[in-house]
Design goal:
Number of helices: 6
Number of domains: 1
CATH superfamily: Aldolase class I
Helix content: 25-40%
Radius of gyration: 15 Å
Number of strands: 10
CATH class: Alpha Beta
Strand content: 25-35%
Length: 187
C-alpha cells in the first residue's frame, strides 16, 4: 500500500484564500502565500491551489498568484482554475508549478487531458471532478462545472475512468454536498 499524502487545497478568489459551504457563502481565510508557508511548515506533502472564479469569470488562471505561492514552497504545487490550453499549462510550469488541474475545460474538451499528458507526462496532469448528489446517475453523483453552477449529465465515476484512460495521473474529487460542512469526507 502506498503511503498517504497530505495535500491541502487553497481555494482562491480575488487573490485571497476563501472557505465556503457547498461552494457558496465564501469567507476570507487569508493570504495565499502565508497559507502555503503554514501548510508546508505543518508537514504537508503537496499543496493544491485552485482559482475558483477563473472559469466563471471567463479568464485564465492568474499566473502571478501561482508564481507568488510557488516561490515560497519546496513541496510540489498543483494549480487549477481557468486552464484551457497547453499554453496555459506551459505558463504555469514556467513559474514553478509542479502539476496542473483541469475541470471545466476537460469536460468541454476531453482531448485536452490526453494532449497535456502526452506533452508533459501523466504525473503532471490532474483532473478535478466536482460532484453533487444525483440519484439518476449510476454512482449517484453528477459532475458539475463552472464552480458548481452547471450540471453536465456525466456520472462522476464514469468520468473519472474516462479521464484516467485519457492519461490523467490523478483525480481530485470534491463533493459539493460535503464541501465546507466539517462533517468529514463524503465517502
Amino acid at each position: 500500500m502506498e503511503p498517504v499524502k497530505v495535500t491541502p487545497c487553497l481555494d482562491i478568489k480575488d487573490g485571497r484564500v476563501v472557505k465556503g459551504v457547498h461552494f457558496v457563502d465564501l469567507r476570507d481565510a487569508g493570504d495565499p502565500v502565508e497559507n502555503a508557508r503554514y501548510y508546508q511548515e505543518a508537514g504537508a506533502d503537496e499543496l493544491t491551489m485552485l482559482d475558483i472564479a477563473a472559469t466563471v469569470e471567463g479568464r485564465g488562471t492568474r499566473v502571478e498568484w501561482a508564481r507568488n505561492v510557488a516561490s515560497v514552497l519546496e513541496i510540489p504545487l498543483t494549480v487549477g482554475g481557468g486552464i484551457s490550453s497547453l499554453e496555459d499549462i506551459a505558463a504555469l510550469f514556467e513559474v514553478g508549478v509542479s502539476k496542473v488541474s483541469m475541470n471545466s475545460a476537460a469536460v468541454r474538451r476531453p482531448e485536452l487531458v490526453r494532449e497535456a499528458a502526452e506533452a508533459y507526462g501523466s504525473g503532471r496532469v490532474v483532473v478535478a471532478i466536482d460532484g453533487r448528489r444525483n440519484p439518476g446517475m449510476p454512482s449517484a453523483f453528477e459532475v458539475v462545472v463552472s464552480g458548481g453552477q452547471k450540471g453536465t449529465g456525466l456520472d462522476c465515476v464514469g468520468w473519472a475512468k474516462q479521464c484516467e484512460a485519457l492519461g490523467a495521473g490523478a483525480i481530485l474529487p470534491t463533493s459539493m454536498d460535503g464541501d465546507g460542512t466539517l462533517a468529514g469526507y463524503d465517502i
